[in-house]
Amino acid sequence: MFKLSENAQNFLKNNQGKKIVFTNGCFDILHSGHVTYLNEAKKQGDLLFLGLNSDASIKRLKGESRPINGEADRKYILENLRCVDCVEVFTEDTPYSLIDAVRPDVLVKGGDWKVTDIVGHDIVLENGGEVKSLIFVDGYSTTGIISSVQGKE
Questions:
Q1: How far is residue 133's CA from residue 23's CA, in Å, rounded to a whole number?
Q2: Which reaction does it catalyse (predicted)?
Q3: How many other C-beta atoms lie within 10 A of the C-beta of residue 68?
Q4: Which end of the chain is more exposed for a tag (fewer CB within 10 A), N or C?
C-alpha cells in the first residue's frame, strides 16, 4: 500500500465530497502541451491530484540522461499552476498503488492512451468512477524539445 505524504492525506481529508481528478506523468520540461492537458484534466472535476514520477522512476523509464529537471523543481512548478491542486511524488514505475491510495473519482491521461491501457483504470471503474483519455496536443513533447536543443531535430 502506498504511504501518502501528510500533505496529500490532509488534502484528501479536507476535500471529501469533492470530485477528485487524478493524472500522472514525468512533466520533465513543462510545455504548452502539458498545460493544455492539465487545464482540461482539471475541468473533469473539482480538484486535480497529480502523481509525479520521481527522478529514479524516470531514469528507469527514460534512461540515465533523464530527468532534465529534478523532482523538487518539477513538483514546485506543478504546484504553482492554477489547475493543479495537489502533487504527490511516487517512486514506482507506475502510479498503480498511488491511485489505489487516492481512490479518485476520475482518472485521466492524454489522448495517446486507450482507456483500457491507463494504469489504475480497474481501481477507478470498480469504485464507480470514470476513466478518460483527453485531448492530445500534437507537436509537443519533452523528448522533442531535448532533441531540438541538442540539434538532432
A1: 10
A2: D-glycero-beta-D-manno-heptose 1-phosphate + ATP + H(+) = ADP-D-glycero-beta-D-manno-heptose + diphosphate
A3: 15
A4: N
d(CA 103, CA 112): 23
The CA-to-CA distance between both ends of the chain, in Å, stands at: 42
Global pTM reads 0.89
Give the separation between CA 22 and CA 2, rounded to whole angstroms. 15
pLDDT per residue as tens digits for the range 95-146: 999 999 999 999 999 877 889 999 999 999 999 999 999 976 665 454 554 4
Please compute Rg for the chain using Cα positions. 15
d(CA 58, CA 129): 28
Enumerate long-range contacts of 121-126, CB under 8 Å, 24 or more apart. 123/96, 123/99, 124/22, 124/99
Cα distances from 143 to residues 8, 31, 93, 115, 130, in angstroms, run: 30, 11, 18, 24, 30
Four-CA torsion 69, 78, 33, 15, nearest 10 degrees: 150
Cβ neighbours of residue 68 under 8 Å, at least 6 residues apart?
A: 28, 29, 142, 146
Q: Give the whole-angstrom CA distance, residue 4 versus residue 101.
A: 7
